[in-house]
Amino acid sequence: MRSTELEALRMDSQCLASYGFGSDAQIFARKREIAALRAKASGG
Question: What is the pTM for the complete model shown?
Answer without folding.
Answer: 0.53
